[in-house]
TrEMBL record:
It is a multi-pass membrane protein. This is Olfactory receptor. The keyword Transmembrane helix applies. The chain crosses the membrane at residues 25-48, 60-78, 98-120, 140-162, 203-224, 236-254, 274-292. It holds the Pfam family 7tm_4. Gene3D superfamilies: Rhodopsin 7-helix transmembrane proteins (1.20.1070.10). SUPFAM superfamilies: Family A G protein-coupled receptor-like. Belongs to the G-protein coupled receptor 1 family.
Length: 327
């Protein structure tokens, strides 16, 4: 019977954020605006970080990678959800669902690894500033990024394979994309072994970067306490404040969503949490990192000034003068 049920599920139906038809247009408009803001904001951050020579540092390399991850995370889930919001047919094939699950888990896990690498960067910058350039290099950041991609890809492949071994009694997924928790909830029998493996893998791959981040900031706190300097504390908060806020936004929602048994899965609350970390957080990250960052603001002005001069049809001297005045 389990095999029969399994073979009959050739597609899933994604129920979306709400079943109320009168809310679909409102949901579509709000999510579309947030999605466009997230993509444009993160794209701008990547362009500024890559084009300005003064931002060619390991920290901005990692920040640009984080922005690329945010673009990927929201693009894996949101466009399909927008189409389904205004469509009668909300079905997705079994294979497409598994592919979406794989990429979502890989990209989502990668964000935590990048935040851990950024925490290490801040730790060395504050606790061992004289050796910073020797310890933290572009080569090191590149190796960390590539290694993290291998780890999260293998982990996501394991997740996807575990899900393909499940048997399903229905095909209506109480979510707006194929995520592992609602798929576990849809399983015919309680998948104890799968839940145990998924939980242990989640702790190892998703939460371990969080503990690494906590350890880094404990070391930073100890180092600052030994300085007995208010100026050092102020500088550390200025340097790490944005990163801490992004970490809290990400892991607050991830821990709330995934590190619990599927029996405690709550339809409405967890879908709201999911829209927060797939759309809201990627939209806020560029703002958090740029609003109080003088280096980034200066690089942004230089980029706009350069684009203004290149796009002007006036003589160079006049164009330079006007663009200098504008930016």
């Amino acid at each position: 019977m389990a095999t029969k049920n399994r073979t009959e599920v050739t597609e899933f139906v994604l129920l979306g954020l709400s079943s109320r038809s009168e809310m679909q247009a409102v949901i579509f408009g709000i999510v579309l605006i947030m999605y466009l803001m997230a993509v444009m904001g993160n794209t701008l951050l990547v362009l500024v970080a890559c084009s300005d020579p003064k931002l060619q540092t390991p920290m901005y390399f990692l920040l640009s990678q984080l922005s690329l991850i945010d673009i990927s995370l929201t693009t894996v889930t949101v466009p399909q959800m927008l189409v389904h919001t205004l469509s009668v047919d909300r079905s997705i094939s079994y294979n497409r669902c598994m592919i979406q699950l794989f990429f979502f888990m890989a990209v989502g896990s990668m964000e935590g690894h990048l935040l851990a690498a950024m925490a290490y960067d801040r730790y060395v910058a504050i606790c061992d500033p004289l050796r910073y350039s020797a310890i933290v290099s572009h080569n090191l950041c590149l190796r960390i990024t590539l290694t993290s991609w291998v780890v999260v890809s293998l982990n996501s492949l394991l997740y996807s394979l575990l899900v393909t071994r499940l048997t399903f009694c229905g095909n209506q997924v109480t979510h707006f994309f194929c995520d592992i928790t609602p798929l576990l909830k849809l399983s015919c029998t309680r998948p104890v072994v799968s839940e145990i493996l998924i939980f242990t893998e989640g702790v190892a791959v998703v939460v371990s970067p969080f503990f690494f981040i906590l350890g880094s900031y404990v070391c930073i706190g100890v180092a600052i306490a030994r300085m007995h300097s208010v100026a050092a504390l102020s500088k550390a908060l200025s340097t790490c404040g944005s990163h801490i806020l992004v970490v809290l936004l990400l892991y607050g929602s991830v821990i709330r969503m995934y590190l619990k048994p599927s029996s405690s899965y709550h339809l409405d609350q967890d879908r709201q949490v999911a829209i927060f970390y797939t759309v809201v957080t990627p939209m806020l990250n560029p703002l958090i990192y740029s609003l109080r960052n003088k280096e980034f603001k200066g690089a942004l002005r230089r980029l706009f000034r350069k684009l203004c001069i290149r796009g002007s049809f006036q003589p160079d001297s006049q164009a330079n003068k006007e663009c200098q005045h504008m930016f």
